[in-house]
Structure formats: C-alpha cells, structure tokens
Amino acid sequence: MKKYLSYLAFLTMVTVRIYSEDAATQDDDSVKTESVKKWVIQPEKLSQTLQTVQIAGKQISYNTTTGPLELRDEKGEVKASIFFVAYTKTKEDPDLRPITFAFNGGPGASSAWLNLGAFGPRKIPNLDLQSPSPPYHWVDNQDSILDLTDLVFIDPVGTGFSYAEPLNTSKKFYEVEKDIESMGDFIRDYITYFNRWLSPKYLAGESYGTTRAIGLAEHLQEEGIYLNGLVLVSVAVDYQNFLFQYDNNLPYLLSLPSYAATAWYHKKLGGKDQSTLQEITERAKDFAYHDYCLALLQGDKLPQDKKNQVVRTLSEFIGLTPEVITRNNLRISPDVFTLELFKDQKQVVGSYDSRLIGYYTDGDRASFEEDPSIKNIFGIFAGVFNAYLKQELQYVDGYAPYKMLNSDVHNSWDFSSSGPFALNMIQSISRSMILNPKLKIFVASGYYDLITPFSNAIYSFDHLNLPESFHKNVTLEKYEAGHMMYLNPQVLQKLKMDLDKFYKK
After folding, report:
1. What is the average pLDDT score of the chain?
2. Within this chain, do residues 87 and 233 fall inside the same structural domain, yes or no?
3. Is the dihedral of CA 317, 3, 244, 346 positive or negative?
4. Which pTM was predicted?
5. Radius of gyration over alpha carbons of the chain, in Å?
6. Distances from the Cα of 170 to the Cα of 85, 159, 182, 244, 404, angstroms
7. What are phi and psi of 428, to 5 degrees?
C-alpha cells in the first residue's frame, strides 16, 4: 500500500481476566500453558477531576479519568500500557447512558485529534483555514457529543503515552489483527472494571481508525459485546482503492469528484461553469461512472478521438491542462493533482484539505511535512494537548514524550493479515451487520479530502452485498471540509446535529 496514506471508586488494584476461567485450572490438554494475560487498572496511576462544560446552552457536569490500563501476565509483569482519557457525565444511570470509545488512525496517530478537535468537552478554536498565532489555548466545545454519550479516548500502543514492555516488543502490536485484539481487550476490560456492560456502546474512529473500528465491531461480537453503532470519520475500508497504478482503475474514478470539488473551490474549472459544489461533484461522479470508466477499461484500445474527448472533459472538471492529463495517460493520482494544479506558482495543494495551498522545496514532489493542511496544525495540537493534560486533567505521570503522531508505527505496520490482497473490511462490515441487524453506522466524509475521498466511502457502502433493509441503518454525510472536517466550526456544528439524530435514532 502506498506510503502517502500516512499522510484511539478506586480502592484496590483490580485484575480483569481475558478468559472467563483460569486456564491453569482447566483439564483440557489443548489449553495453552503460557501465562494467562490480564489487564489491570492501578488507581494510584489514574488522575480524576470534576469539570463542567456548556453544550447547546446547558451546563453539564462530568468526571474525567486519565491514565493507563495495563496488560500484565500472571507474574504481574507489564506487557503493555494503554493510555486513555475518559469523560463521564455525572448523575447518570450507567446502564442507560451510552458510552463511545474513540481513536484516531494513521496507523500511528494518538486520539488527541478527535479529543480536542471534535468530540471532547474542550476544543482548540480557530483551526480551519487560518492557524492561530501563539499562545494557544482551549475553550468549551459547545458541539461536543458529551451531552449524548460518555467518551473514552484510547491511544493504541506506540501512540500518546501507550507503550509495550519491554519497549523493543512494540512492533508485535503494529499489525492489523494484533491491534484489533489489544484494543478489543481494552474495551472489554474497561467496561468490566467500570461496570458498563449494559451501557449502549459505540465506536468512533477516524481514517485508519475506521478500519480499526470495523474490525473491532466483529471482534467484540465474538467476545459477546454487541455494539449499538459505529461513527466513521474519513473512511478507509477497501485499500485497493488507494493503490494508484495503471492496471487498477477504481482509485482514479473515485478520486475524480474530489478533484472536481477542489478545482471548483479554487475557481479552476474550465469555461465559465457556475455550478454549485454539489452539482459539480454529482456531474463528475456521473462522468466517472460512465464515459471515464469506459475509457480507462479500454486501455490501449481506446480510439484516439474518444481519448481526446475524455481529456478535454477531464481538464474541464479538474483544472489540469490537457497536456498533463495526456502525459499521465488519463490517470491522475493525488500526487500529480496536488502538484500540478498550482505548479505555475510553485505551490502544492493540501492532501488532507485541498482548500489549502502552500509552497514546497522539491521540484518533483512535496514532502508530508510540507503538506499545507498538516503543517499548520500539528504543533498547535501537540502544545495544547500536553498543557491540557497537566493543567486541566491533572495528569503528570505520563511516559514522556506524548506522541501525537509516531511515524515508526506507520512505517512498521504489518498489513499481511489480508494475504496477497489489499486489506478490505467490507465483508467484516457485512458480517457484523448480519449478526447484529440493529447495528447503526454513521459515515462522515469531506468534499476536500484527497486522502480518503468521499466517493470512496460511498462506493464501499454501496457494495455491502446486503438487502436494502440493512442499508437503512447506514447514514452517509458529506461536509464542505477536508479529512479532519471538524476543524471547520460550521462543519462541526452540522456534524453535531447529524450525530444527535444518529445517537437518538
């Protein structure tokens, strides 16, 4: 998979077993003799505070719990430590109160992004297109979903303060199935320790976190934990749709509407097109599903007159010159598009939010660090979240430094569990919905996201191979923003309204 994709009353120590009975007492010879692993919470390592927040004009009191949930063997040795930040509304019946476990993606991203950017009770203001000047701060998040659900933000091993012990064993967690297993163990043991087995349960993931959430839904069902819903932000489901190579046409087709949205925003459309954003993207999708698709399928056999016609139409939709489109044989990858749209000005388009443009140093490509939609927010989130941990959450015992993004996790990630094929979670979604027909799914996509294009999400959920009755449980929403659409205050308000309907559905 291409690397640019990079671009979750305390009195005594309580041990929660993975197994319902001690393996050492079983007579079955098939039982493994290795040490039974246990997740434990040590109260002295947790920080708790009482806070309030204004949401939709109402004051909400809530408790914060911050710290590690640890994996130990029966000798008491730590195997891994999973860091979390939990927000629970006061004076609520935990059996009736929903709880949402949230995490980001990468792989290699901590959950601080969704915490202080989208769903948590505090947020960093003014982060959309113009990054603020220091000193940075946080404010009440009036669009937090804490009024709808309790929240637990989880950092997978290698991110945030989460780590494996000894440290040189971390890479065993950097694998699709092992990651799902460890995160599933955390969720199961969290709801056991905090008595949340009867609570309505949700997962919320962003980017690769949507891959993780989908896998977790199926994994947790095998553990007897049925979910009420999934909140999937900037979906990554079928990774073949991210493989831009000549013999794989689908990624080029599904990216076209996002390119058209970008060209529309920057007024790069051919002619004097006065279409709205919705109109231009629908027309681009229609072209992609028909004439463009037929052209790519014909390959070298495409007649020259038809090719010329497709080149002209593509140029009008995405703002690139016919020469660039011809040179790339009708197949425009994000790398080509982001560099070519403003090449005459030596500027690159942001991949995570294509509304943003910026300068870069290399004539042939822009580095991840030069992506204008990333470089303007990374340091802000890192600074604010570290201060927020100590000043408001009063957590000072972290395994320093707090890792917002860990490139080693991403670069070491093992996708081989999918065999010789690209990772595809569509069947996992379908199986989870069949086993749990009440499972609701909310999908949020950004028009200006070139990392996980919105048409990609639509295509994936159009191919669940399930009857229409199941599709009624899937909500697909598009927002006028990028990969992290919640950074736009107006979009965050709309997202909150849509999630309000989803949770109450």
Report:
1. 87
2. yes
3. positive
4. 0.89
5. 23
6. 21, 11, 12, 31, 17
7. -65, -40
> What is the tally of structural domains in the chain?
2
Does the structure show a pLDDT above 90 at 24?
A: no
The amino acid at 141: N
Helix (H, G, I), strand (E, B) or coil at 428: helix
Q: pLDDT digits over 302-342, tens only?
A: 999 999 999 999 999 999 999 999 999 999 999 999 999 99
In angstroms, the CA 210 to CA 427 distance is 14
Cα–Cα distance between 84 and 398 in angstroms, integer? 11
Q: Residue 219 pLDDT more than 80?
A: yes
Tokens of 345: 């000005």
In a domain, 396, yes or no: no
For range 263-273, the mean pLDDT? 83
The enclosing H or E element of 444 equals strand 440-446
Evaluate whether residue 408 is within a structural domain.
no
Averaged over 118-137, what is the pLDDT? 87
- Domain shared by 115 and 172, yes or no: yes
In a domain, 198, yes or no: yes
Cα dist from 505 to 100, 228, 445, whole Å = 16, 10, 20
Same structural domain for residues 163 and 59?
Answer: yes
- pLDDT tens digits, residue range 64-76? 999 999 877 677 7
**Residue 401 resides in a domain:** no
The boundaries of the domain holding residue 421 are: 50-67+83-237+414-504
* Judgement on whether residues 185 and 303 belong to the same structural domain of the protein: no
Q: How far apart are CA 343 and CA 227, in angstroms?
A: 47
Same domain, yes or no: 91 and 227: yes
Among 108, 127, 107, CA closest to 116: 127
